[in-house]
Design brief:
Number of strands of chain A: 13
CATH topology of the largest domain in chain A: Aminopeptidase
Oligomer: homodimer
Structural class of chain A: alpha/beta
Distance between the termini of chain A: 13 Å
CATH superfamily of the largest domain in chain A: Zn peptidases
CATH class of the largest domain in chain A: Alpha Beta
Largest interface: A-B, 38 and 38 residues
CATH architecture of the largest domain in chain A: 3-Layer(aba) Sandwich
Strand order of the largest sheet of chain A: 2-1-3-6-4-5
């Protein structure tokens, strides 16, 4: 745990076709007062300009999978995003002793995930931020995957604390939607306000526990021997992110209209249901489990 | 007007990231009976395989703007889609004396346009098809832009009659949605059934007139002197395709939250509202006018 946050970075366009973060970064570059707080400095960065210019998720690799310590140190990884990761590590890190304390990375999804707060750190400062934002935005969902920061491959992991990924949907790639833009703006404001209050030692009145979801596994779309998908997300499952999936519930429907059900024995929850970006690996959704997340120092 | 239809082509993937048509073509290639009718032959074609492989709308140019007669005859136009257009013209046309009588081209949009039947021909056979489908699918919208077939730049225009473009949304690019897939499948079935009944001289019982919409102009998103957009579609307008826009109604909202209203004097209707594909030209929506479409030989 660290005592105070001195340097914050807000990043957008890590996936080049997720325009909300790109335009928020540009907006704040011309309206810097909105992201300034007197107890820390805030930087703004567009992290994948070439992919953004081409309105593609990535040029060579998914940038938001390139930040584990081994890959950052591997000089043979020279794809465009692998190079961008090394540049961002030099700019914001280096990962083993980072200059930036906290990174807020803005994303969107084609899935109906609403305002999802994705955080991979068990540090009370990070959990507290997620709890704080959810108190202000009760429709938000906590998406919690504790990981070893050095092993983590997200951009947020090159900060001193593994930071916050804001994931909002549904929205198509390559466009803006005011509600998504406005919600993302609001969540970032709350994140900065939280850091300010925490730095100043002001009472935060956070609960000791909140409900959230933890990733368990990715579920592939059915495919044929040539690797082509043969089914799509079932209409009963479409848009039902964070709803329960019970044994026997429909998961997929083939191109010819036959339903494929969930054959597991335990109730699960879906997320990233029908995310366009995951079609490159024929992934249909993620299975999640519902969890209780505990905040150690909620009296702060 | 031509007496009967002998050769039909169903095309998909003209825009490489609109996967619905791609997977319907693949489905019908393995289930050909669904598209067979005994009074004509049906061909299936994936029209832009390279863009489809890269899950992009196009490689070099929008393929569905490359089919006017001058461009097809211009040997200097050698971009990927310009070459594809010439190949498709050789395969399905040639435009001045086509082998294929009727092309049904399947598209999707990120706009909330539902089942839109886009047709550019005033031939009673084509108008009759749109009326027939709308009778079977009352939620469909007729989108009618009569044009000179040789001047028209759509793929559908290289058939003997300027055919039917099926445009379904909202759906993000790069994914499948069962409802969109199923609706498109249904509309194509009705189109084929119509041609079969017409070929056989069976009574169609079509109305003499139906309501539709005609394109009037494209409305750009506000932009700055560097050509970057400074506003997005207003939340009151988002998803309101084919609704009335009255003088003073909100059109856009700036990144800073200021509303920009419609300053025209006539009521209009919106379509292609917030279509991702049109961000490459900073187009926010199309203005349409509501029209009555008349069918000359409705007693057929």
């Amino acid at each position: 745990m660290i005592d105070s946050i001195k340097d914050v970075a807000i990043t957008g366009g890590t996936h080049g076709n997720e325009l909300t973060g790109v335009h928020l970064v540009k907006h704040w570059l011309s309206h810097p007062a909105e992201v300034q707080r007197d107890s820390f400095s805030t930087e703004l960065h567009l992290t994948n300009p070439k992919a953004n210019k081409e309105v593609r998720r990535y040029i060579d690799q998914d940038l938001n999978r390139q930040f584990n310590i081994e890959d950052l140190k591997n000089p043979e990884l020279q794809g465009y995003e692998q190079q961008r990761a090394k540049s961002l590590d030099a700019l914001l890190g280096p990962k083993e002793n980072p200059r930036i304390d906290f990174i807020i990375d803005m994303h969107t999804t084609t899935a109906n995930m609403g305002m999802s707060l994705i955080f991979n750190s068990s540090d009370p400062l990070v959990i507290g931020m997620a709890f704080y934002i959810k108190q202000k935005m009760p429709h938000a969902t906590l998406f919690y995957n504790p990981s070893d920061r050095l092993e983590d491959n997200f951009l947020t992991s090159i900060g001193r604390l593994n930071g916050l990924l804001i994931e909002v949907g549904p929205i198509a790639q390559g466009l803006l939607n005011y509600q998504v833009y406005f919600d993302t703006h609001t969540a970032v404001m709350h994140a900065l306000d939280y850091l300010q209050q925490r730095n100043k030692g002001l009472p935060l009145n956070l609960p000791a526990q909140m409900e959230g979801y933890q990733f368990t596994k990715k579920i592939p779309l059915p495919e044929n021997t040539e690797g082509e998908i043969t089914a799509m997300v079932h209409p009963n499952l479409q848009d039902k992110d964070y709803h329960a999936i019970k044994p026997g519930d429909p998961l997929f429907i083939t191109m010819a209209g036959e339903t494929i059900v969930y054959e597991g024995e335990q109730m699960v929850y879906g997320a990233f249901i029908n995310e366009a970006a995951y079609y490159d690996q024929n992934i249909g959704l993620s299975f999640m489990e519902k969890i209780n997340i505990t905040l150690q120092d909620s009296n702060l």
